[in-house]
Amino acid sequence: MPIVTVLQGPRTPELKRELVQKVTDAFVDSLGVPADSVQVWIQETPPESWAVGGTLTADK
């Protein structure tokens, strides 16, 4: 049973639906596992809680 964790900033439910479908399809296509065995966990972090190059992404 593949478990995929996606760390990202906040996204709309529509974008998350598309993401999890495409990630699931990639595992089905590449590993031949059944779609219902693929779990995708999305962990969202608000822009004020992560930084790139020493700058909060909220400040960019």
From TrEMBL:
Pfam families: Tautomerase (PF01361). Transmembrane segments: none annotated. Keywords: Isomerase. One of its GO terms (molecular function) is isomerase activity. Residues 4-59 form the 4-oxalocrotonate tautomerase-like domain. It comes from the Bacteria. The keyword Isomerase applies. InterPro entries: 4-OT-like_dom, Tautomerase/MIF_sf. Belongs to the 4-oxalocrotonate tautomerase family. PANTHER family: 2-HYDROXYMUCONATE TAUTOMERASE, TAUTOMERASE-RELATED. This is 4-oxalocrotonate tautomerase.
